[in-house]
Amino acid sequence: MNEADPRFSIVDRIRSFKYAFNGLKVFFLNEHNGRIHLVAAVFAIALSIYLKLSGLEWIAILSVISAVFVAEIFNTSIEKLADVASPSHHPKIKMVKDLAAAAVLVAAFFALAVGGIIFIPKLFF
Ligand SMILES: Nc1ncnc2c1ncn2[C@@H]1O[C@H](COP(=O)(O)OP(=O)(O)OP(=O)(O)O)[C@@H](O)[C@H]1O
């Protein structure tokens, strides 16, 4: 698309969606971490349905699931970019990749915490 073109184009918008859905396809089909997160998300949603969560509990669970997916998709994207920018070992690339991985770790940690707070009392007490 021409960046200077101010006209709204429904065709361009649809094309953007197509690229974004292709990104999701790549993430879930090619990336092991994508599949692991998908399985975990399906499990958490199934458990939430089974335990009949309240509206606010659903919002908390869906928010942390989405945070993990977003972090992992950005992490994967940054890894691919870094591999092209610097195929050989580089200390800055190590820092960039480790930071991106840290984002996933933080999101996953808080997802586990929120899941624990919501599910453990309903399952065991
Ligand atoms: N080009 C590089 N230069 C410096 N360090 C690198 C480089 N590539 C990878 N590393 C180091 O190795 C770690 C793992 O990198 P890699 O790209 O294999 O990610 P990964 O987490 O193993 O990938 P995946 O998420 O696909 O399992 C990085 O976090 C970084 O510390």
UniProtKB/TrEMBL annotation:
Co-factor binding details: Mn(2+), Zn(2+), Cd(2+) and Co(2+) support activity to lesser extents.
Active site as annotated: E72 (proton acceptor)
Membrane-spanning parts: 36-53, 59-78, 99-120
Residues the entry annotates as binding a divalent metal cation: E31, E79
GO CC annotations on file: plasma membrane
Residues reported in the UniProt entry to bind substrate: E72
One Pfam entry name: DAGK_prokar
GO MF, any single term: metal ion binding
Gene Ontology BP terms: phospholipid biosynthetic process
InterPro entries cross-referenced by the UniProt entry: DAGK (IPR000829), DAGK_sf (IPR036945), UDPK (IPR033717)
UniProt keyword list: ATP-binding, Cell membrane, Kinase, Lipid biosynthesis, Lipid metabolism, Magnesium, Membrane, Metal-binding, Nucleotide-binding, Phospholipid biosynthesis, Phospholipid metabolism, Transferase, Transmembrane, Transmembrane helix
Compartments where found: Cell membrane
Matches recorded under CDD domains: UDPK_IM_like
Co-factor requirement: Mg(2+)
Membrane-related topology note: Multi-pass membrane protein
Binding-site residues for ATP, renumbered to this chain: Y19, E31, E79, K97, D98
UniProt similarity note: Belongs to the bacterial diacylglycerol kinase family.
Name of the molecule in the record: Diacylglycerol kinase
Source organism of the structure: Pedobacter yonginense
